[in-house]
Structure formats: structure tokens, C-alpha cells
Queue: 4 jobs
Job 1
Amino acid sequence: MIKAVRGTRDLLPPETALWNFVEAAVRDVFRAYNFHEIRTPIFESTELFARGVGEETDVVAKEMYTWEDRGRAQSDKGQSLTLRPENTASVVRAYIEHKLWDRGLNKLYYIGPQFRRERPQKGRYRQFYQIGAEIIGPASAGSESPARDAEVLELLATLLDRLGIRDWTLQLNSVGCANDRAAYNEALRKALEPVVGGMCEDCKRRAVTNPLRVFDCKVPEDQPIIDKLPRISQFLDEGCRRHFEQVQEILKAVGVPFVLNDRLVRGLDYYTRTAFEFTHGALGAQNAILGGGRYDGLSESLGGPSAPGIGFAIGEDRLVLTLQESAEAVQRKPDVYIAPLGAGMDREAARLARELRRHDLVVELGDENFRLKKSFETADKLGARFALIVGENEVESGSFALKNLEAGEQVSVPRAELAGKIQAR
Ligand code: AMP
């Protein structure tokens, strides 16, 4: 038997109803904040992620699905391509490629699959879905303002509330700008030197190449050592400190609760200043439901103009996991099950179904070869609200037997009144 590849999975009904419910709610919220959708390709040149995400990150160093294009044209041959492991680099590439700065501030969102070769477990997959957004533009359009950071965080709080997700915590940090980071990296290197010998292999490597990444370490024995390392909050310059304070002031003013977490440095290299994560109690080990932050230098590192930005990515799989119990509730059940009774009635049933579906009703069709008992059983199993019987007598008289399956009562209804009767609750 051929099965779905490890780390990938089929999304089946009724769960898919939940995915659609989430996506519809998300699109609504984005509309209210004047975000517009962008769809970028599923694969890009490998170089985009190497430069845009960072060679030293786990994502680029270990987790990408990369291959060499065999190509038909000579120009394609040997090009290294990668399934996108995240979407921000692609959005910024598109921003540069299409000169989107001409419109000032760009508020873009995406929904789609991402690919990382991680060890699969509950809430962690190799093909997973992200819902993300970016605000990016020239500083003159206000893209650098702490008001944008706060707007994005308030949007996220609204979104989670709207989905009925209550048990979330916003963890907030500032990772400073390039200057702060240089001084901080130096301090970290110094602090790590005497202790790194007792840490895991990954940390030993990170201490040399990119000490900040030590904070990604999940090895329990390393945690007491990491707890004693200097924190970025002690190294913020005046501008970054002020920026961070202003973000917090707005959040307090609009009533979005947060906790400060100066261990939070996020897995991707391009973040500057505000970094954040929303965690959720019910998710267990993989408790990060979304993450994001500011990336003021990303556009330049991809060869574009200065374009400060801030964004986030929600793990849609994890969002849906927290809503799992509601899957049955959001799946729309048939309003009516049409039971054709006897030869020639499939045709009549099809005509009626067509009429009723035009009224936006969910209609399921039986089969003229089914006995009435079987039709009722099927209608029950599907959770239909009504059963409509279509037999020769009904067609002749133009009046149809409509059974309310919840109340159990049956009435005869003229054809023209059927839709109204079924719509009424
Ligand atoms: P990142 O792009 O690493 O900042 O991740 C943003 C969010 O995507 C995380 O908070 C997770 O909710 C989700 N996510 C990241 N990797 C995976 C994965 N392998 N499987 C499922 N969700 C993921």
C-alpha cells in the first residue's frame, strides 16, 4: 500500500471544515486591517532562503528540501531550487521584484503550505501550513514605527479571540539592531567560552558561528547554563529601548496583555527589534502557535532598497489543533436529503435539487432504487434536517412530503414553498 510520505498528511472532513472556518475568519480580520493577499511560488531559488533566512539557522542548515533543477533550457540546468520553508523571504523578494514600494506601505498576507525536514510529531509536520502577514515599505511611509508593531500584535489578539482561542500568552522581546547585536554577540561569546565545553554539540557549534542561536537549544541539561547568560535587554541602545517601550505603551492602551521574555530570540536570523511568540497551553511540547517580529534589514540583504518591516507566521495546523473539538460543529450538515421513490424519480429529484441549491441550501441526493427506510436511515446518518420524498404522486400533484427529521413531523408542501420552508429554522 502506498501511504502519504512521513511528516505529510491528508486533511479530511470534518476537519477540513475547520480549516475553511479558520481561513474565512482570518480573511475577514485581515480585511478590517486593510491587508491584501499575496501568493508567491511554492519553490524558489535556494539562495533566497540562504540569504533571507540565514545559513546558520536550523531551517536552512538542516531542514530544507533542496534539489538541482535538471532543466530543459541550458539556463535552468544546475539551478539549486528549494521548497519554501517559510514565506517572508518570498514576500520580500516579490516586494523588491515588483517595486512594491511605489505604493508606500504594503500590508500583505498569505496562507499556504511550507516545507521543513523536521522530526515529525504531534503539531510538527514536514508539510505544514502558515497564515502570515507582513507590513513592509519605506521608512517614510511609517514602516519603522512602533505603532506598526503594536497594530500587528493587536490584530493577532483580535484574531485569536475571534476564533474563540482564549488560553494564549503573548511573549515579547526586543532583539535590538545590528549594533546592539554585535556588542551582545561579543558578550555572549565571552560568557560561553568557559562553559560551552559542558553543553550539547549544537551549542558548541553555535557558540562559534552564531552565539544567539544558543537560545534555541532545547536540551534540558543546557538550560541552567543558558539561564545565566547575559541578556539582549541589557544591550539595547537608546533608539531600540525607546521603540520597545512605545510598543508596550500602545499594547497597554489597547488592552492586549503580554509578558516580557528576554530569552526569546526566534529561529530566523533576520529579526531586529520586536520579536514575539504566542503560545497556547493546550498544545504541549509544540506550544508555539505563531511567531514573528521586525526585520528592518531583510530587504537590503536581498539586494533591495531600505524597507523596514514587521510580520508574523501562524502555524495553521496548530491553530486547528486547538480548535479540534469544534470540528463537528462547524461542518455544515445537509439541509435536506431528497429521497426519490421509484423508477424515473432520479430525474425529478435532480430537478428539485437544482432548484433548492440555487437557494443556497445544502442538498444531498438519494437514489430511486433505495427503499424509503434506507433513505431515511441515510438522511439520519448525514445529520440532514429534512427529508424530501419525491414519488410519482408528489410529482403529479406538485406537492411534496417534507419530513422534519429533528421534530419527526411530516407535512405536504407545494413546490414553490419548499425552499422557504426548509430555510426557516
Ligand atoms: P517560524 O516560521 O519558525 O517562525 O514558525 C512560525 C509558526 O509556524 C510556529 O509558531 C509554528 O506554529 C508553525 N510551525 C513551524 N514549523 C512547523 C512545523 N514543522 N509543523 C507545524 N507547524 C510549524
Job 2
Amino acid sequence: MDQREKWQSSFGFVLAAAGSAVGLGNLWGFAYRSSQGGGLAFLLLYVLVVLIVCLPVLVGEMVLGRSTASSPFIAPVKAAGDSWKPLGWLFAIASCGILSFYAVIMGWTADTFFHSLFIGLPIDMNQAGDFFEKISSGKSVFIGQILSLALTALVVAGGVRGGIERLTRWCMPLLFALLLILAIWASTLSGAWDGYTSFLFRWEPSQLLDKTTIRNAFTQAFFSLSLGIGIMVAYSSYLSKNNKLPKEALTVASFDTAVGLLAGMITFPIVMSFGLKDAVGASTIGSLFIALPTGFANLGVFGRLLAALFFGLAFIAAITSSISLLEVPVSSLMEQFGWRRHKAVWMATLIVFVIGIPSAISLDFLGSMDSIFNVLLILGGLLISILLGWVVPRKYDEDLAGCNSNQRVRRYLKFMLRWVSPPVIAFGLIISIIDLI
Ligand code: PHE
């Protein structure tokens, strides 16, 4: 077998992992979930779930990848035997399923980008509805979906260093800079303060106990961190022994949360200052594509340029995530069948395209895929915490000791992984299922 690829640098790995985490989930998911009524309670729960529950699991996923140096499909079996095979399947199915509808939304994003530059954007709510209808149905959806998948496949075919690391290295800094510029601009809008306070910072303590708010916090945390789906297993399997995983996991989680907040600080002022609250309040998955283009279009040519900037940026963020999703089936096919990277890439892409057809045709289907697969991520997270916290806890210790990470940090993570993450994630999973049904 070929020698396993390696990241060129630790920073390259961190950027790629952050690239996976930061995506449409931050720009689109965060906006639509926080507008579903949770306000500050949602934000608080979400940040707590990330820092207290997800962080030890994120490190766990990384340990699983690095210590087995295997693809997500094989890693659980290598770590703990054949009875863990279903977890490998869960990773493979969840990543293909998510990518299948993610590529459709990427297509809408690309289409909105082209409309901003070349065709024009809706200027009132009536036109906005038609606009969303246009980008989310018919031929253009398929063009967008195929284009997005093809670009994703091209990068992944380039390999870990030549494709994934190279792309994320210049995309991530660019993305962050653009987001900052847009957030500063948005803060100067007349409705900015109203926007922050009526969505992000509205405090209603009763929301802390609301089932939908709790489900949103959990799904946002797992989806946004790309957690529970084997991506960090795949990426970490190309790591060397001396990366300090806890520190890197914290960097990824902080960056991801910061981008989510920044994105909220862009979208909500726009929504408020252009009177688009109802468009978002309808809380459909289309809200970002209905409200934002309309808001931008109200600023004339300058607005169209800003829209191009925003949706261009969203597309870049999305592609650094979609490549990580595709890497899961690709690395698994390569390892399971000894295929070359190119063959695995095209095969996996084809499968994902076919699974994505119903999502491209029906918005309702896409919405259901989003809800169902988000729950699978939480389940994946639960299984990882059980696997590394209880079944093979020594792996966690040994791997983290091997990279010389701080002993106090290690003890803390281990404690959380065993005693806090499993029950809390199980609670989140049950509430989410109840709320969904
Ligand atoms: N984290 C990505 C985002 O926020 C989406 C994603 C989910 C990517 C799950 C990989 C796995 O857009």
C-alpha cells in the first residue's frame, strides 16, 4: 500500500479542520436557527454545548483518526473491534447524505452570486419570493448542484496536501477578512442595534427549556463543528504524532463559533434595516436567500457588489466544508478496496449526486434530510464519546500523552468525555428526536 499522506504543517491541518467547520452552517444555519425564537438562550446553550460537551468529543474524534491512521470506515473497528463496524457505516452514510443536500444549497449560493453580479436581485418581498423560487427549482438547481460537486471532486482528487490543504490555506484568511469587513459595514446600518437585540441578544429565560431551542443548540453545535461524522477522523489520520490536539481542537471550535457570531452580526442588521423580519421569521431554510439579496439590492449597485462579496464568500466557506464531507467516503473507499484516489473521488461523487436528486427537486425533502442527518451527527457524537471514554479509554490517554499536551488539560478532557459528554449528548439526542416527531 502507498505510504499514507501527511499534512504539510500543523497549521495546514488546523486551517483545513476550521475550513470544514466554517461553512453554510455558520452563515445560513446559524441565522435561521437563531431566528426561530431562541435568541440569547439559543446562543448561550449553543456555546455551552460546544465548549463543555463537544470539545472533548472533538478531541476524541481526532485521537481516533490519529491513533489508528485509518479512514473513518475502518478506524472504529481498528480501535475497538468488529462490533464497532456500524459506526463506520454511520460515518459513511451521514457524510454522503449531508453532502447530497449541502451541494444543492451550494448551488443556490452560486446562483445568487451570479445574479448579484450579472442579472440583478429582487428589490421587494414579492420579487424575493419569485427569486428564491427561481434559484431553487428547475434546471438551475441541477446546474448549481453539479458545478458544486464537480469543484469539490476536483479539489479532493488533488489529495490532502495538493488539494485540500492548498485550497484552505488561502481561503480561510480571505474568508475571515471579508467577514470582518461586512460585519463592520453592517454595524453602521440604521437598524443594526435592533437587529442584534431582536434576534441574537433577546433574552427570554423560558427559551432555555424550550425543546426546539435545545434541539437547535445541539444540531447547530454538531453540524457547525462537523462533529460526529468522521471528518475529524479522516483529517487527523494524516497527522503526525506531535500535534497538540487539545489546543488545535480549541482553536477550531473558537474560530468556528466566532464566525457564526460574525455572520449573525452581518445578517440581522441587514434584515432589520430593510424591514425583512417577516422573511426570516417564516423560518424556512430559504430565509437567507430571500432576505439578504433583497436587503443588498436596496443599496443599488454598491449593494449588488456587497451581495456578490457575501455570497462569493459563502461559497468559499461551503467548498472548504464540502471537500471534508467528500473526503470521508473517498478515504474509506480507498482503504477498503485499495482504489486510487481519483477512482474513489468520482465514484463517491456520483453516488452523492444521485442521492441528492430528490433534495434538488423538493424543498420539503431537503428540509427533512437536514433535520434527520443532523440527528445522526448527535448520535455519532454520542457513540464516539462512549467509544473513547469507556471502551478504549487508554487510547485517548496514550495518544494525548504522546503529543505532550498539558496533563491537567488531559485529565479535564478525559473526565468530561466520560462523565459529562455521554449523558448530556444522550439528553440532547432524546429531546431532538421528541421535538422532531
Ligand atoms: N460544518 C459545516 C458548516 O457549518 C457543515 C458540515 C457538517 C461539514 C457536517 C461537514 C460535516 O457548514
Job 3
Amino acid sequence: MFSYRHAFHAGNHADVLKHTVWLAILERLMQKDKGLMLVDTHAGAGVYALKGEAASTSGEAEHGIAALLNHDGDLPDPLQRYVEVLQAFNAGKSHITHYPGSPALSAQLLREQDQLQVFEVHPTDQRHLRNWAQNHAAAKRIRMHQADGFAGTKSLLPPPTRRGALLCDPSYELKSDYAHVAQWLQDGLLRFATGVFAIWIPQIARLEANELPRRLRTIAQKAQKPWLHALLQVRGHNSTAPGGGLSGSSMFIVNPTFELHEQLQSTLPLLVKALGQDDHARFELTRG
Ligand code: SAM
């Protein structure tokens, strides 16, 4: 049984990076009317109470979304939109008490012509996710799968409209997740060559984690698809961690949306400034 619970990490610096990138992708894709299929392979619980027991125990959101909201001054467009979507999710309040996980963020933007497919394997998070999905105004367009998101994606591709985006956000609790992510991308591109594939990668001292961006680059290059890699490191790897053990993370995107690179060029320096915890805070943005 998995022990990872996203409730302890909701709204941390990794969520801020991942969800800002994901929203920027969705908003660009939604500039066209044709319906989209959104796939969330590792959905989590859906919504998280920031004052709930798990989030309060870890304090990670304090150094993530709370630090961003406390930042003085203008935000670049993608971050401004992210904050607006969070505020809309909290009924227009500037004070954010509930943090929307990736399925809830996607659902916030979902149009009549779109559909959202979410996968989750943990029984507790499945229960929360099901409650959230069933009570959502767009419930009819949200399909929940109590199944492995890596394997389950295959039968969904390509989407009927041939338009879609996929978020792959494993907890990497299992060493095999790294190989599964690479295989998932390779299989996904064979079935849906024009899809936008967004993958979250932790920055941790583990060979498989260090090698994953290179493996994904090779897969994208062999498929002759453009890719983009955005990394946000908030502190040195060895410094003690206020609010969580992760020093950084990255998003690897294949078939990035138009101007995503430019959007991240303005976003990442601000994130370093707002969320950076020591002199080692930095970003990297590469593409091919
Ligand atoms: N994507 C969510 C978000 O941004 O709000 C967070 C997801 S969390 C990092 C990873 C989730 O994947 C956990 O809830 C875990 O139970 C679930 N999980 C682990 N292995 C899975 C698998 N093979 N298929 C689907 N879900 C899985």
C-alpha cells in the first residue's frame, strides 16, 4: 500500500510550479473552440484544506502558495492567472483556505465541449476524489478511474477530437515509477503524436530522478517532437528544509503550447524571488 498523501504537500513550491505550467497550457489550448480531453494520471484527493491537519502538520504551503500570495508587486501573466483561478475557487476571497489539486484546477476551466479523465489508486484519496467529482457542477464531464494511470491512459488515446493534454504527476514512491513515466510518454506519443504531455519530476538525490529529464528528451527527440524543461530549485540540496524535504522540481513538456517558453521566461525568475529560501535558489529553462 502506498503511504504518500498529497494532502501533506498541497500548495508547496512544487505544486506552484506544476499548476502554473498546467494552467498556462490549458488556457492556451482553450483559445480554440474544439473540445479537449484532459487526462490526469495521478489525481490525488482533488481538494485540500490548507488549515487541515495534514497541511498544518507539514507547513509546506507556507513556503509555496502562501509565500507567492505574500509577494509584493506585479506578477507575470501566468502567475496572475494562477492566483485568480485559486481565488475564484475560494469563492472570490483573496485569502485562500482551500487549495485545488490538479483535477480541481482542470475542472475550474472545463468547458461544455471538454472532458476530464482522472486516475487514482489510493483508497482514501479515491474516496475524497469521488466525493469531489460527484458534487462538481461539471460532474457529467469528469470521469474517475479507480485504476493505474500509466496503463489506463492507453485506451483513451487518441481522443475523439484529436485535441488534448495529459498531466503525469506520480509520487515516485516506487523506483519503477521513473521507468513507467518514460514508457508512458513513449506509448502516448505513438498513439497521440500531437498531444501535450506534461510530466512532473522531483529534484532529489536519486540516479533515476537525475536521469529522467535526459530520458524524456531522448524520447521526444526520437519522435521529432518539441520539448521544454522548466526547473525551479528553492534552496541548496543540503540545507535544512523549512516546510518539506524537496529542494526543487521540474516540469518536462512535450509539444509545449504556443509561447509557453516565453511565459515561463517571465514566470521562473519571479518564482525564484518569491519562493527562494537561500542563495542556491535558481531556475533552468531549456528546450529543443
Ligand atoms: N496531481 C495531483 C495534484 O497536482 O493535485 C497530486 C498527485 S500526487 C503527487 C500522486 C498521486 O498518485 C497520489 O495520490 C497517489 O496515491 C497516486 N498514485 C500512485 N500511483 C498511482 C498510479 N499508478 N496510478 C494512479 N494514481 C497513482
Job 4
Amino acid sequence: MNTQALPCIPLLINGELVASRSTEWRDVVNPATQEKLARVPMATAGEVEAAVAAARTAFTTWRKVPIGQRARIFLKYQQLIRDNIKSLATTLSAEQGKTLADAEGDVFRGLEVVEHAANIGSLQMGERAHNVAVGVDTYTLLQPLGVCAGITPFNFPAMIPLWMFPMAIACGNTFVLKPSEQDPMVTMRLVELALEAGIPPGVLNVVHGGEAVVNALCDHADIKAISFVGSTRVGTHVYERATLAGKRVQCMMGAKNHAIVLADAHKEQTLNALVGSAFGAAGQRCMAVSVAVLVGAARQWVPELVAKAKLLSVGAGNSAGTDVGPVISCSAKERVEALIARGVEDGATLALDGRLPPLDGRLKEGNFIGPTIFTGVKPGMAVYDQEIFGPVLCVTEAESLDDAIALINANPNGNGTAIFTQSGAAARKFEDEIDVGQVGINVPIPVPVPLFSFTGSRASKLGDLGPYGKQVILFYTQTKTVTARWFDDDSVAGAVNTTISLR
Ligand code: NAD
């Protein structure tokens, strides 16, 4: 297709979808076929400035909008997303590669956060203590911060933007979103639906771009808080740069998620869970199981694990029956293939090699890698030490539950982990002793629903408060404590008191 004829993704500034004046653009590409779908601009410095200025102006009125009115916008928004979920999933699958069913799941997990935002009335409540001294009450107000910004990754282009702007805006902030430049189309469709739901001009703005735009957001004096989700390298940079500029920052970053398998686990359910988690979304989930730690007699389950993985069908996300779609880009495919080669060089056993899966026609050009399994993996090997972010499962072994826990606790990452067992005592020991922020018990991808917060830990996170749940209300608001004394009209004036006591 002629590049000039491709649709150009607009920016959103002050309620208007506007064409960027940038001279720098990149293509949005279907990773299954390399078909070009659209062009996305790298916004200019002036466009970033205009988006932040619109958000700053809108904040002066939006912060005073009553909480019920804010909540009703999100009630309408969740219905609009629900009504459009199929077409949103189709767009998402075309630009990101995941299967249609999984793309619908991506939208749905974001929709749940919008439902949570609609509940803002009972979330953004302060505390009150009556009579803390004679006639004195103390109470807290959770007030919006101002302009907040969000920077999102390619792997959940619906869910992760929806982790951010609905909660920030529901709290009374205004927002500038910087979606992934690799798959911004579904994000923009969600943004259009947000406008349709009644988000006023300037309250939500979108700029596209890469490093330069992200740095401009980190440095901008009018932005009070930044939410980032993406790789550890970029997240660490964003955290350092934006905190140095005085902002509140939360960064959810890379992972290496281990699942311990004890021999008393339900074998069939466990193997299905491992295979689904490791290879679903082509392994491009930050909470995917990427290391299986087989303990004791469970070490004998490898042939059945490999047999199940072999049954998965590799293909385009929009084809019926596909289990594993492509990885996001040619460079991601090259990186994963190079790591597989490194695994062999480092001495791990390639029990299942997914490189060069058999595909026909246009799909031959796609970024496909089939399920890949290494056994005999040890710390110090590149496939263990690095986040692969592709359909590669590393299998390692431990003599005992204690050894397996020690292995996981020695790994720097803390995003997610799981145990498969039928022993309540073993599960309880695991949840108590494991140093990872999100724990599954017979659940391979333990991402909390929005009643709770996303609580990755250690090297997988910078900043104290996580996305959604109750924690994000504290992230997107300033707690103000008011101590108030009211006198009865006929009370005695008393004398000057030069001591600190309120009594
Ligand atoms: P990425 O870090 O490459 O990109 C994330 C965002 O940062 C994008 O918007 C991108 O445009 C921007 N960016 C890229 N390079 C930059 C640079 N040099 N300077 C400033 N900004 C830059 O991440 P990705 O490849 O899009 O996503 C995959 C990563 O995200 C994986 O590491 C995965 O584990 C992680 N992730 C983590 C979570 C979590 O909750 N912990 C969730 C999803 C994804």
C-alpha cells in the first residue's frame, strides 16, 4: 500500500482530534503480515506544550465538578466500551497480534477499571475524627493533583491506558496520555469513546511519540504525576528523570515470573495453566509464567509439558483456532531468536524449538515464533537472567519447596509468581515467605481485579503506590489534613495560650 494513503493517527488536544505537524512519523504494522495499517506522528515540542497547557486550563474547572457528575461519565463510558468490545478487539488484534479472544480480554480487563472509576464516590473519601481536642475535629480531603501523564507499553494497548486515565480523571485530575507508538489505534478508539461519554475538552489529551516526547513529559513543570508501564530500562529512566523534576511517579516494569510445581499438584490443570500462561499472547504479558520450577517428582512431567505446548496452533490473531500470534515487531522476533540461540550456547537443553514455525502465504513474513521450552536452565544463563518477552518457557528444578522459594527470592524481579499444589500448608508457607508482590495459588497469572491494586514489587516496580484499587486514589490525590475548631457563640474567650497543646 502507498504510505501516503495510510490513515494518520491524530493527536487529541483540548477536545479536538488534530493532525500533527511533525515531520517524523512511523508506520503501525500488522505483525502477522507486515501490512501497514496507519502512520503515527512523533509529536513536536510545541504539540506537547499545547496538550499540557490544555490540561492545565481544564483542571481549573474539572477539579470543581461534583463527584457524582464525574462518576456518571464513567458509567456511560463503561457501557460504550461494552457496546464496542468486538470492534475494539478487532483493531487491537490487527495492530498488536494477539488472538481476538485475548484482545477482547485485554479490553475487558480495562473495562473493569472503568467500572471501578465509576465508583469514585465511595473511593475518594477522607477520614474524620471528632473531638480530637475540646471542640476540635480533624479530617482529611483527598484533592486532585493537577495535570497527570501516562506512558504505556505495546503489550496491553487497551487495558493499560485504561488503568491510568479513568482513575486519574475520576479523582479530578486532567491527563496527557502517551500511548505506545507500536499499536496506538485501539487506544485512540478508546479515547474517542471517552469523549463520547462526556469527558470535557482538555481533561484528556493524547500525544504520540518516543523518547523525546517522554522526556518532555518528565521535565514539564506543570505535570504533577506520571504513571509508566513498560520495560525496566525505560521505567528506571522515567522514574529518575521525573522524580528529579519533583513529580510523583509510579513505574511498573519488567518481570521474570516463576511458577513452582509440587508433585502433589493436579497434573492436568497445572500443565494446562503453565502452557496457557507461558505461550498465550506469544509470551508478551508482564505476568506470564516464564520460569517453571519443578520440585521433586514433578520433574518427570517435562515430556507431557512439551507435548501440550506442541499442540498449540501458531497463526494470525484473527484466524479461528489460533493459540499463539506473532510477537510485536521484526526486531522483537530477532531479539527472542537470538536469546534462544544464547540459551543453547549457555548449555540449556532446547526441549522444544519454536523457531521457524511452518506458515503459509503472507504469514511467512510475520513475526512468528512457536512455543519454545528450555530445560536444565540455571541462573547465570541469559535465558534466565533476561526478560525474554516471547513464547519461551524456561524449566528449572529444585529439590525442595525451600530451595524453590530461595531461587525465586534471589531473582531481582518481583512482579508475579505462583505455586501449584494441593497442600494448603505448602501454599501458606509460599505466600508467607515469597518476596514477590503478586502471588497465585493454582492461578498462573495472578493479576488482581480492580477492587485491589496491582502490587508488583522489587525490581519490577518503582514508586510506592500501584495502579487502580485503593492505592491509586492515594497516588492521584494529595491528602490534606484539616484541623478545625468552632466556638459556641456564648463560649468564654479564655486567655492567650503560648503552648502547643490544643486542650
Ligand atoms: P518500553 O519500555 O520499550 O516502552 C514503554 C513506553 O516507553 C512506550 O510508550 C515507549 O514509547 C516509551 N519509550 C521507549 N523507549 C524509550 C526511551 N528510550 N525513552 C523514553 N521513553 C521510551 O516497553 P514495551 O516494549 O512497550 O513493553 C514491554 C515491557 O513492558 C516489558 O518489559 C514488560 O514486562 C513491561 N510491562 C510491565 C507491566 C507491569 O505491570 N509490570 C505491564 C506490561 C508491560
